[in-house]
């Protein structure tokens, strides 16, 4: 069985996915499809499946494969092709790409008005702005978490220095140090060993070399 062109196969698979029905879907009779939300189609579907957000490029591809555009009774744009309809996957390989997008003066629907291009740019800028806001919020949260962890570490170190002798530190270090390591490792694994090693040295002093402790941060890191 011959395989359909990659663009055609991907487009058909997208239309068959229930998760995309609010963005792009078959018409009720299954003989064409419509794009309900162009901005979401660009950012969520085109970016993932076609490696671009250029809607004009997508329309040009439809033209090259012989798709036509018409408007229904609700003035919605419907794209169709005699061989591209729901349930006809076995004949998709017959849809061939044209060498030229326009021949004999025939006008295809891939031309986009300047106003539509401007609107698309505005939509993309709005999407980028929202993504930037999310990243900034995540950075603020990460900073606050790291600040709180640093305060807890300093408080623990000060407590040990003020209330325990070297011998006592050695006896009680294991459980709180394990808990502290898990806290740091769960937040920033790459920082765990670097942060914990000097803490061990500071809390336990020179009673025993760091490498002698069976549950050192370095060994812990290797277990995860």
Automatic annotation (TrEMBL):
Pfam families hit by this protein: HSF_DNA-bind (PF00447)
Top-level taxon of the source organism: Eukaryota
Record's keyword annotation contains Endoplasmic reticulum: no
Signal peptide: none
Residue ranges of domain HSF-type DNA-binding in the record: 3-98
GO-annotated molecular function: DNA-binding transcription factor activity; sequence-specific DNA binding
Keywords: DNA-binding
Classification via InterPro entries: HSF_DNA-bd
Similarity field: Belongs to the HSF family.
Protein name as annotated: HSF-type DNA-binding domain-containing protein
